[in-house]
Amino acid sequence: MKTRVCRLYGENDLRIETETAPKPGAGQVLLSIAAGGICGSDMHYLSQGGIGTIRVTEPIILGHEASGRVLGTGAGVTKLAAGDAVAINPSRSCGTCRFCTEGLYMHCMNMRFNGSAMRLPHEQGLFRDCLVVEAAQCIKVPVDADLGAVACAEPLAVCLHAARIAGDIAGKRVLITGAGPIGALCTAVAAHEGASEIVVTDLQDAALEVAARMGATRCINVMRDSAALAEYEADKGHFDLVFECSAVESAIRSAIASLRPRGTLVQVGVAGDTAMPMNAIVAKEITLQGSFRFHEEFGQAVDAITSGRINVLPIITQRFPLDQASEAFAVAADRSQAVKVHLNFSR
Question: Which residues of the chain have pLDDT under 70?
Fold first, then answer.
C-alpha cells in the first residue's frame, strides 16, 4: 500500500512524497488518517527550522493532531477492528522512569511524541494518508463522529490539563490572553466549568470572533484598544484566574496587573525567556503556575468532543487537502484569517 507523507527537510523545505506504508506488527494498528490539525510547533519547524534550542536536523514527517479509521490490526489487538474510527494520542510516556512512577507522565524522561524533533532520531508525525501506530495510542469513537472535531482532541487535552492545574473555575472571573487555538479552547473549557466572566484578549478580530463563539463574555482587541484592560487593573486587580496563552511579555505584564491579590496565572503559552514583573507577583501574592502537555486529559478531551459537551468546531477556520499543504501552512501562519487549519487526507 502506498501512502503520501508531509515531510519537512529543513527550513521552508516541505515536500509531499509517496512511500510504502508498513504493515502493523504485534499490538499495532494500520490507520487511514482522516484529518490533521496544523499546530504552532509545526509552523515553527517549517518557518524557523525548529523551536528555540530544538532543531530539525533530519527529515521529519510533521503533525501530532489527528484522527482516522482502522484499516487493519496486528497480532494481539482485540479492542479495535477494521472500520473503527479513532482519536490518536501522539504522547507515549515510558511508564518506568522516575517521573512516570510518580504519576507525572507528561514529564517522562523518555517521552516519545509524534512529530517532535526533540529526540534523535526524530519522532515521525501523523501527516500521512496511512500509518502504523500502537493500538494503545488509539481511542475508539462513534463510527459517525465528526473526525475533524476529533482531531482537535490533542489541543483540547492541553487546555483541560491547564484547567486541572488551575483548580476550581466555577464562579471565577477569568482572563485569557491570546485567542489562538489554545486560547479559544481554554475559553470553551472555562465556560463549561462555570466561570462567571471570561474576558479574552488578542490582536486579531478574526481570532476574537472565534473566542466569542467559544464562550467569551467580552473580547478585547488590545492592538486597537490598548487601554481597555486598565479598568481591570484598578484597586489591585479584578481577575481571579488567567490562562496566559500568548507567551508575549506585554500580555503577561498586563495579565499580572489585572489579577487580584492571590490570583493565579496559569502559563500555557510557550516562547523564549521572558522578563517577569516580580515585584507585582510578590506584592499581590500571585500564584504563577506552568502547564505542560497532558496525560489522562486526552481521553477526557475525546469524551468531551464526542459527547457534545465541548464544541470545538468553531476553531477550525480552514481545511485543505494534503496536496495543498504548503498553502495550508501559509494560511495557518496568517492570524488575521486563521485559528486552526486542518489538512484532510481522503483521496
Answer: 347
Determine the residue type at 299.
G
Question: What are the residue ranges of helices labelled H in 153-194?
Answer: 153-166, 181-192
Whether this model's pTM surpasses 0.90: yes
The predicted pLDDT at position 31 comes to: 97
Domain 159-290, CATH: 3.40.50.720
Output Rg (C-alpha) for the chain, integer angstroms. Answer: 20
- Rounded to a whole number of angstroms, the distance between the first and last alpha carbons of the chain is 14
C-alpha 30: how far from its chain's center? 24
- Angle (CA) 237-242-244 rounded to 5° is 125
SS3 assignment, position 213: helix
Instruction: Indicate the DSSP class of residue 3.
Output: E
How long, in residues, is the chain? 347
Domain residue spans of the chain: 2-152+312-344, 159-290
Peptide bond preceding 24 in cis form (omega within 30 of 0)? no
